[in-house]
């Protein structure tokens, strides 16, 4: 019983829902993408802000806890709300253009097995769709999780009014290095 409570706390990772200010900042970064998938939609604070920048038919919200999924479905009847894990939802997502993956997942506190599966799915997603981005906030000073070479984290901004203050980061896939064939200049003395 205690183990279940602890695991639930590690999956939730927060004492309060995301503030309106944090939700609006996250949503503004998702504006202009072809599609948006929200991971760990929770109580729907970020979902609400996302409905202002993307039409509901291009927004999918993913949440693990059925109690919250029920509330999300009631509150946002036109948004596709998926009950399940973020890694599963990302792996089966129907990509149609650049996608903003907006995440409230608490990577710092997620159980190690869940974190590993989720990070691998995010990286696979960005490899399959390099114009897509992971938009993620964290309460820590460092990037939300370590990304391998070939990926780049950019710190975007702190939202100090959130409780606790949150920092927004964006993860992208770096362009593959183009092997430039260096042709030797023609030597007229050689045939
Ligand atoms: C920080 S809380 C939600 C924050 C949300 N923006 C809000 O204001 O309520 C993180 C959410 O991620 C969900 N979650 C944790 N691990 C998950 C996973 N692997 N897949 C999907 N959702 C997950 C939790 O159930 C929790 O609702």
Fold blueprint:
Elements lengths: L1 H11 L7 H11 L4 E5 L5 H6 L8 E5 L2 H10 L4 E4 L2 H6 L7 E5 L8 H17 L4 E6 L12 E9 L6 E8 L18
Parallel strand pairs: 1-2, 1-4, 2-3, 4-5
Antiparallel strand pairs: 5-7, 6-7
Bound molecules: S-adenosylmethionine.
Q: Which CATH architecture would you pick?
A: 3-Layer(aba) Sandwich
Task: Note the beta-strand portion.
Answer: 15-25%
Number of helices: 6
* Rounded average pLDDT: 90
Query: Nearest-angstrom radius of gyration?
Result: 20 Å
Number of domains: 1
Span from first to last CA?
A: 82 Å
What small molecules accompany the polymer chains?
Answer: S-adenosylmethionine
Oligomeric state of the chains? Answer: single chain
> CATH fold name, please?
Rossmann fold
User: What is the percent of helical residues?
Assistant: 25-40%
How many strand segments? 7
The biggest beta sheet is recorded as: 7 strands, mixed
Across the major sheet, the strand order is 3-2-1-4-5-7-6
Shape: globular
SS-derived structural category? alpha/beta
Uncertain spans, ≥5 residues at pLDDT below 50?
179-184
- What's the order of the H and E elements? HHEHEHEHEHEEE
CATH class descriptor = Alpha Beta
Report on this model:
- The protein has 191 residues and is α/β, with parallel strands linked by helices.
- It has one domain: Rossmann fold, CATH 3.40.50.150.
- Helices cover 32% and strands 22% of the residues.
- It contains six helices and seven strands; from the N terminus they run ααβαβαβαβαβββ.
- Strands 3-2-1-4-5-7-6 form a seven-stranded mixed β-sheet.
- Strand 1, helix 3 (45-50) and strand 2 (59-63) form a beta-alpha-beta unit.
- It is globular, with a radius of gyration of 20 Å.
- The model is unreliable at 179-184 (pLDDT under 50).
- It binds S-adenosylmethionine (SAM).
- S-adenosylmethionine binds next to helix 1, helix 3, strand 2 and helix 6.
């Amino acid at each position: 019983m205690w183990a279940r409570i602890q695991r639930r706390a590690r999956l939730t990772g927060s004492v309060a829902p995301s503030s309106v200010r944090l939700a609006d900042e996250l949503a503004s970064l998702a504006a202009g993408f072809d599609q948006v998938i929200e991971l760990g939609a929770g109580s729907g604070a970020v979902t609400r802000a996302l409905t202002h920048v993307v039409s509901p038919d291009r927004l999918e919200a993913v949440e693990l806890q059925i109690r919250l999924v029920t509330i999300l479905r009631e509150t946002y009847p036109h948004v596709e709300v998926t009950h399940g894990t973020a890694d599963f939802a990302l792996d089966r997502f129907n990509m149609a253009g650049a996608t903003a993956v907006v995440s409230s997942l608490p990577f710092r506190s997620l159980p190690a097995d869940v974190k590993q599966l989720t990070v691998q799915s995010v990286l696979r997603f960005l490899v399959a769709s390099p114009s897509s981005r992971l938009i993620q906030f964290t309460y820590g000073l460092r990037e939300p999780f370590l990304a391998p070479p070939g990926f780049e984290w950019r710190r975007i901004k702190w939202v100090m009014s959130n409780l606790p203050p949150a920092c927004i980061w964006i993860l992208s896939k770096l362009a593959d290095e183009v092997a430039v064939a260096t042709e030797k200049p023609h030597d007229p003395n050689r045939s």
